[in-house]
Amino acid sequence: MTVRVIDNSLMLSDHTKHHARSTGNDGWVVSYLPGRTLSRAQAEAALLALEDITALRAHAGLLGLTVLEIMGMAARECLWSAPLKQGFAARALAWAGVSR
Question: What is the pTM of this model?
C-alpha cells in the first residue's frame, strides 16, 4: 500500500480514484472529505484508509457481506469467553496431572 506524492502538491493511490491536493501553507484537501483541511499526515492516512477498504471489500465479499455489514458486526463486543493462552497439548497434560 503506497501513496505517491507528486511535486508536494498531489497525493495519489493505485487503489482508488480519490486523491488529495495541497492547499499551500501545509494544508491538504481530500476528494472524499469536502470542507476539511488536513495535515499532510492526515491526508495520507485518508488515502491509506481507502486502500484498507479495498482489501476489506474483498474479504467481506468472500463472506457474502458488505464492508458496512462486516464493520458493524466486528465493532460489537465479543460475547465469547477469551481463548485460553495455552495450547491443546498443554491443557491435556494439565488435565492429566502431568507437569512439564
Answer: 0.67
